[in-house]
Amino acid sequence: MPKITRSRIMASAQVQCAVLCFLLYYLTPSGCMNAKINFREKEKQILDQILGPGRYDARIRPSGINGTDGPAVVSVNIFVRSISKIDDVTMEYSVQLTFREQWLDERLKFNNLGGRLKYLTLTEANRVWMPDLFFSNEKEGHFHNIIMPNVYIRIFPNGNVLYSIRISLTLSCPMNLKLYPLDKQTCSLRMASYGWTTDDLVFLWKEGDPVQVVKNLHLPRFTLEKFLTDYCNSKTNTGEYSCLKVDLLFKREFSYYLIQIYIPCCMLVIVSWVSFWLDQGAVPARVSLGVTTLLTMATQSSGINASLPPVSYTKAIDVWTGVCLTFVFGALLEFALVNYASRSDMHRENMKKTRREMESAVNMDAASDLMDTDSNATFTMQKPLVRGGVLDPKMRQCEIRISTPRRNCCRLWMSKFPTRSKRIDVISRITFPLVFALFNLAYWSTYLFRDEDEEK
Questions:
Q1: What is the distance of C-alpha 447 from the center of its chain?
Q2: Cβ distance 342 to 280 under 8 Å?
Q3: Is the per-residue pLDDT at 30 higher than 70?
Q4: In angstroms, rounded to a whole number, what is the distance separating the alpha carbons of residues 362 and 410?
Q5: Is the peptide bond before 147 cis (omega within 30 degrees of 0)?
């Protein structure tokens, strides 16, 4: 009997312990929820409760702050994923971004079951009220539907709604190309309400960090220097509409244009100067060199203009190509002038040679006449030159002028080149590089060290 009683007591104690453990586990809040609540089913019940027929109307906008009749406030922030291109011809740029809106709709409040339900997720935007935002400077755009539509709506227990979507846009970007390719361009992203005026709907940038840009953003010909957020409310004859904008400041990468345009143009101009060092008689070489450089420069100028829109003002690249083309054309004209001067020099030399021959013939005739005359006639011819053993004053002045010429360095240096054609070539060798160097100094000083106000 005592053994049986002890075993029964031990068995009853084990049963009581098991019952106590069962009660402690299943009667606590966490235990009860784990055992009895299916949260996916509960989410369905809550959605049916707050979005059921006759309970919620997506056509009616939410109330204002603190349940007032003021405008609904929508906070906006964006995440720039990529910028694919910036087109100078069509003046547009393409961007892919994640767009987010957040607002309070008190009609969507629900019980979070003791903090176990953080938010409800929807993928159908037409189930709740949505702000009628549109991109005012958009040309083309599309949503992303691979593999599923890249969109979601989160409803929080206090009624906050978060809408997020991934979109790709092609936006217009009016550009000022006066400083091209040393320019900076500001491209805007504008978002506004289409139908709701500021009495019903107001867009605000999210506090903190309204715009984020992906790290290591690489563009082929531009660098994103900075971006600024601002407001751009617009007034029309139908009312005032809320508007947000982001200004993206792009700086054009100059190294590409330095290698592809500026250095080749400089080389063509320098090659055209080679004709100054060629012989005047090398007519085919000088003509072919001048014409080839001129055509090459003209082809490069037309290729540059083909990649840009036909604007009505003069661009910085137009000034550069125009001056380089002028230098190449001037080198070709210089050869024409040299050729004309060379023929003129030949004609002058022939005239001098003929005159010398005539003078020598006259001198020979005079010498023979002198030999035929007597000594008295000889004395008579020499008498006017000497008066009392002294030279005539006029002859003395002639001797002084001939014996003391002016000493001019330039004339002495130019006297080394007897022909005018050679002098033109020598002067061109110095003048063309000097003027081109002065142009470069003025050009780069004007466009590189300009003020910020001039850029704007």
A1: 14
A2: yes
A3: no
A4: 37
A5: yes
Contact 203/96 with Cβ under 8 angstroms?
no
Q: Please report the pLDDT score of residue 409 as a whole number.
A: 66
Contact between residue 214 and residue 79 where contact means Cβ atoms under 8 Å apart: yes
* 92 beta partners: 87, 172
Q: How far apart are CA 235 and CA 125, in angstroms?
A: 29
Centre a 10 Å sphere on the Cβ of residue 235 and count the other Cβ atoms it contains: 10
Closest alpha carbon to 221 in 248, 250, 261, 246: 250
Structure token digits, residue 163 = 């809408």
pLDDT digits (tens, 9 = 90+) for 114-154: 778 888 988 888 889 999 999 999 999 999 998 888 999 99
C-alpha dihedral sign at 397, 399, 404, 405: positive
Entry pTM: 0.71
Residue with tokens 């709701």: 196
Token pair 């012989």 is found at: 279
Residue ranges of alpha helices (H) inside 310-419 are 316-372, 375-382, 393-403, 409-414
Give the integer Cα–Cα distance in Å for 326 and 332: 10
Question: What is the rounded CA–CA span in Å between residue 203 and residue 74?
Answer: 5
Residue 100 reports pLDDT greater than 70:
yes
Contact status, residue 157 vs residue 110, Cβ threshold 8 Å: yes
Q: What's the whole-number mean pLDDT along residues 441-453?
A: 79
Q: Are 108 and 161 in contact (CB under 8 A)?
A: yes
Instruction: Report in angstroms the alpha-carbon separations of 54 from 49, 57, 382, 395.
Output: 10, 7, 142, 131
Residue 11 CA to its chain's centroid (Å): 88
Structure-model confidence comparison of residues 336 and 265, the more confident one: 265
> How many whole angstroms separate alpha carbon 332 and alpha carbon 291?
7
- 329-357: b or e for each residue (b if 16 or more CB lie within 10 Å)? bbbbebbeebbebbeebeeeeeeeeeeee
pLDDT (tens digit, 9 = 90+) per residue, 214-249? Answer: 988 888 889 999 999 999 999 989 999 999 999 999
Q: What is the pLDDT of residue 415?
A: 60
**Residue closest to 137 by CA, chosen among 173, 167, 86:** 173
